[in-house]
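Lab meeting prep.
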Amino acid sequence: MERDPRELGGAWQLSQRHTFIAPSGDLARYVERYWVVTWDYERPYRQLVAPLPNVHLTFRDGRAELHGPSSAHVHRELTGSGSVFGVAFRPGMFGPFLDGPVANLRDRVIDATTVFGPPLPDPVDVVSVERFLRAHLPVDDPAAENAARTVAMIAEDTGITTVDALARRRGTSVRGMQRLFAEYVGIGPKWVIRRYRLQEVTVRLAQGLEIDWAALAADLGYADQPHLSRDFRKIFGEPPTHYAQRYESSGK
């Protein structure tokens, strides 16, 4: 398939605008950020979305949806003019809002009213959405905080490449770590580790750095380069060398 030239060199930014807003202090334990995306396309654009271990609450065209953690990339078609307002919950901190494990939301999109009930915020802006969230705050859950701190540790510590190492750092067993992630994160600790380590690969590619793929695969805990490339393609929708083309004419 011929590549859409709007994917290259940051050309998509001519038709999209992304805004990120920090939550108020009292909601920061649950919410990582608010985000707003607007777009205007004369021709439909197939937007690739790479997953992270967040649950998202989105508002668009009078509807509210909950997007559970995705195990792989997805594509969304953007056409004409439109916008969406999103709430990205801290990984691990959406569990207290649910009556079951976050793993039940994995790779699913559901009507948000099944969790929060009506009415929805109106208008959809930071003030009204924060009022809406405050009206539905759950009771404190120390296990959720533990899950959130564990994901933050994975994101920050590039030396964590295995679940065994993570479990030792957190003073628990591998089985205990897996149970914690199923209940509160919605996707396994091995996936989360690989996701954040592969994010570091995208940074190197964007910077145009030379990469010793065999050495990098070993550093990231992979048996070999093909296994790294397989996971990279599942997350980012294309092999690393193809992904790097996105930045070749962007000056980055």
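Slide two material, second protein:
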Amino acid sequence: MTAPAVPATGLGVRATARVVAEADGRGGTALPVLAGDGPLALRRTRPGAAGGAGGGAGAARVTVVGAMSAPLGGDRLALDVTAGPGARLWMGAAAATIALPGRSAEPAHYDVRLTVGDGATLCWLPEPLISARGSDLRMTCRVELAPTARLLLREEQVLGRAGEPPGRLTARLTVRRAGRALLDQELGYGPGRPGWDGGAVLGGHRATGQLLLVDPAFEDRPVPVRQLGETAVLTPLAGPAALVTAVAPDALRLRRLLDEVTADGRMFTN
């Protein structure tokens, strides 16, 4: 169910949605907690109801449905997702998230927390985040992985709607495995960010994204470095993981680049 959003200080809203997935002991995955809040409505969906990797047989599928325009200036939104030991969870979104200016001059905050237990698999495949003109969004994604957890995580940012400059966007991704840092990066785009549109960062492109794959099997079979077209590369990380980074002129071509690797990530759909 979705609870009413709670007004935050200023003119924004404060909302936290929660998902807990647990192995049901019969080869499937149960959802004892599925609690939407404010703009973050959650729906359990059937296999095949959305595109992308499905998390495999016995996986639970949850789709985030926007219940109202968000995030706006001053909003503080959070999504807390836990896949317990042995659970298999696929999470996606019904539509892109659009960061918009609000009545408050304060930036919006959107915090995602993902926890994946031993033997669990989480496919986190939201739709793109669009940074609209005049918006200011601080987004964080923090991931905690058990030693035998598996993760497929996609992030996509589109800088501005058609024909408009982008807003201000800061995105930080922190991933820890077995208590140790696996990946910690922060990216910043838009007004006030020196060089974000230069050749060393986006080179004039307006869509950027990454795909992170974590699997204990990579310890014995590391992923080789591979170039994907002219504007994407697949590289191994210092751990059982691989990272794809890509830029593209628009969201459609960015998704095509990342989908090449999703198709290769069959260990997440078996």
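Talking points for slide two:
Residues 2-200 form one domain.
The helical segments are 251-264.
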